[in-house]
Write a sequence for this structure.
């Protein structure tokens, strides 16, 4: 084939770019797990250098090839075609940012993170505001570089989730808001559920061992990955052959380590499930942040917080933590793991109230990006939203607008993918149950490999060949439909709270 | 100053190069400490990509600047001048290798290492010989690219130790050989020393804790470094702010962990002692491999195996390992740690017989590079040397020519720096004792910081501004003089073996 040689050169160069990205990701992993404190500043500049090197390599070496190939894309075979078009889309976007702007953003991001850490410790949003203000100014500039039709916010959303717009997110949340509010009200009228036994002292080493067992059961391949401890759990990958998760172990909260590991394990199975032959190409990368999040949440919530899952692990749990589970049955543990209760911190929020945390962040970002809110008034706006949605009075900035690191890093437009992840997860899970009618029994028997294979074959194998909407259509036969999530959560909570 | 701006640009670009090298070094560290097995192959290619990227950056971005500045070097101030001239020397050399050759070497090195691992497991040199043969062919080609006056081997030696030649190493060893032979004979006529108590079972965790304490005492800065476990102990550095050592803990050999940690700790203090303001420049890099090795050995042997050192730690040792040290006194421990006894394995050889291991490797390399020995006959040649020098009959390839990984990686011309390191160490140590007349008492009191400061100020601070010979002259007032080593070792062994 005429363009075969050029396409092969593209494959080779994409592998080079992926090699460099692997090094960058390793530096990030190491920073959170092993790096001595004194190296923070230097590491930040080393990572900035590598990021700039990758950016330059992609634009100088890969982009021209991609443009050449894109001009004859209909002569390529189908996968090559999709790879070329997706690369073109990404690089068309990447080349819009001037190199000096990329460097400035990297530098500002480091500074803003330091400022956030300081303000977080001081529990004082006002200290952070001027730095965040600068970051938003840059993000608006970034949106201008990218260009947009309706809202500058759209340009940022699209960086995390191809094609996502402010109005699309608004529509989804408009659908969800009354439904979720209603669920919360119903919960508040129900008999409260005791979770005290989850919060007795639990040996850390035993918790760790248990998370390792669960990861193994899920099908996490330890010959191509590992688990470590870090302050904030995350998943990273340096190639399909080296995918790493971290977890945190809280001596007084069993669910923290367990669900952190399952969540990150879900992300990791996605990365391990990409085909190594597609290394460096879109076909060898995860589809989008929302779909990635769907993979972590489908394991964490749809599987991990299900009754059959608890039933299967109940014997292990009892053996490992006999004091905590004395006199309990699987149903009580299931209930405790699924309690819905408004709280201040997003990362420990339940499956229902969680989405109000995201909605709040989405509205903050939208209002600022569309110039209806000033950064200095962000905290007040936040607190009003928490009151409106969850009837909570935020009294500390740490419990409010300062709690997440993301904005300081410049991750604006990122949060909505978390909610979308839950909604995709529910929709995929419904489909999985259709495809594996026996799934519930398999879970109850601790057999997850059939389900993992279904994810591998239905979702992972496609990489980034399609945008998430198309992938969703391909997997489930319809576009994202939030009713799957609503049915799933209502059904589960009916059992938890005994609704009839 | 006229060329100031250009020099500042050079500093900036050298920092970029160092950032990339830091990432490469991190990949190497991770490979030995954390990497899952399944990632070996991919990691090798990722590291090759990064190495090629650095090579290219140095030649494309740094070399032209360096050539410009070198043409007006007498207009620069003195440190800038030395930095520019040293960079020119290195890059003049680096640019002699065609990029395809560098890639071929990287690839061959990976393959040869795999072959070595296989042959090592099979305990069969013959399996390895054809691969090593290919490696030597490439190394001869590399020597041709570099060019040389007398021996192709010189071109390789110079890559590890600027200016070192085959005839210089031969001269040094000719001086040492009869002296060392005589010492070994004298030891063999002396009363044997018991070392059994070192080899009783010793709790691994306790050993680890002890090594951490000793590193701390030496002045290793844990806010800018860390210690981990690996199969083969090593030191690596990603910047002066992130210097890492590894050790290995043998349940039945106390000295293994202890002296591995001290040895690597010595290397690490050198890296931590380089000035951060010189990051990326020759002035911020270690002088040479031999001088680096002098820093590990001065701590391991001159300090760590001295009687005052053992006296200081004796109480700790007794508390940590009461069963092993029951009824022992510091002198007995000192004696046991300094026993001289011919043995097969280089890495566990004593301070005297060690140099015959190096001499053997040096002669192997020289004879092959100068076409007097065939790679297929290497093992026989080796065994004959072991018989001649140490009166040992090598019966297993693992205990002989297959024991070290270095050749498979292409590190040919590297081993002599190990012996030179010992000789420099003794010479530096003699000088340190002159400068700090109270040094022995300080060691006995566990006060190492004065000594560390002396190393920092006499050696580390200069980085790579001078070749090792010049540095040696600067520090000790004379060129490398092996008599310092001979006096040191004879004096110590006189105490150990009660020679009068």
């Amino acid at each position: 084939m005429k363009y075969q040689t050029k396409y092969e050169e593209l494959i080779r160069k994409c592998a080079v770019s992926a090699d460099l990205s692997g090094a960058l990701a390793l530096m990030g992993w190491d920073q959170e797990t092993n790096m001595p404190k004194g190296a923070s500043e230097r590491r930040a500049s080393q990572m900035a250098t590598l990021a700039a090197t990758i950016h330059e390599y992609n634009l100088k070496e890969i982009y021209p090839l991609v443009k050449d190939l894109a001009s004859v894309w209909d002569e390529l075979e189908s996968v090559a075609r999709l790879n070329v078009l997706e690369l073109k889309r990404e690089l068309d976007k990447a080349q819009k940012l001037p190199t000096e702007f990329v460097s400035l953003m990297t530098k500002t991001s480091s500074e803003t993170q330091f400022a956030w850490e300081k303000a977080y410790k001081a529990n004082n949003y006002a200290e952070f505001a001027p730095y965040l203000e600068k970051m938003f100014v840059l993000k608006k500039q970034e949106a201008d570089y990218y260009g947009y039709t309706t809202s500058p916010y759209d340009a940022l959303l699209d960086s995390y989730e191809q094609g996502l717009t402010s109005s699309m997110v608004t529509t989804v949340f408009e659908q969800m808001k009354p439904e979720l509010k209603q669920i919360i009200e119903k919960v508040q009228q129900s008999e409260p559920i005791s979770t005290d036994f989850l919060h007795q002292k639990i040996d850390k080493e035993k918790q760790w061992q248990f998370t390792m067992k669960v990861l193994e059961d899920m099908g996490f391949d330890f010959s191509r990955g590992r688990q470590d401890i870090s302050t904030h759990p995350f998943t990273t990958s340096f190639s399909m052959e080296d995918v790493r998760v971290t977890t945190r172990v809280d001596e007084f909260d069993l669910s923290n380590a367990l669900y952190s590991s399952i969540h990150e394990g879900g992300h990791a199975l996605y990365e391990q499930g990409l085909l190594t032959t597609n290394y460096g190409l879109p076909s060898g990368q995860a589809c989008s942040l929302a779909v990635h999040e769907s993979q972590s949440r489908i394991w964490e919530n749809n599987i991990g917080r299900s009754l059959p899952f608890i039933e299967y692990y109940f014997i292990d749990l009892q053996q490992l933590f006999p004091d905590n589970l004395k006199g309990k049955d699987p149903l009580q543990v299931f209930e405790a793991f699924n309690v819905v209760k408004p709280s201040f911190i997003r990362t420990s929020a339940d499956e229902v109230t969680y989405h109000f945390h995201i909605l709040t962040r989405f509205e903050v970002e939208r209002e600022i990006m569309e110039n209806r809110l000033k950064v200095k008034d962000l905290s007040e706006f936040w607190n009003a939203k928490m009151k409106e949605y969850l009837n909570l009075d935020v009294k500390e900035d740490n419990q409010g607008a300062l709690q997440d690191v993301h904005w300081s890093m410049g991750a604006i437009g990122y949060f909505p993918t978390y909610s979308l992840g839950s909604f995709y997860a529910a929709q995929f899970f419904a489909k999985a149950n259709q495809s594996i009618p026996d799934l519930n029994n398999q879970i109850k028997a601790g057999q997850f490999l059939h389900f993992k294979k279904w994810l591998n074959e239905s979702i992972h194998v496609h990489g980034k060949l399609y945008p998430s909407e198309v992938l969703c259509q391909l997997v489930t036969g319809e576009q994202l439909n939030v009713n799957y999530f609503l049915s799933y959560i209502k059904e589960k909570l009916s059992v938890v709270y005994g609704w009839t």
About this structure: The first helix of chain A runs from residue 4 to 33.
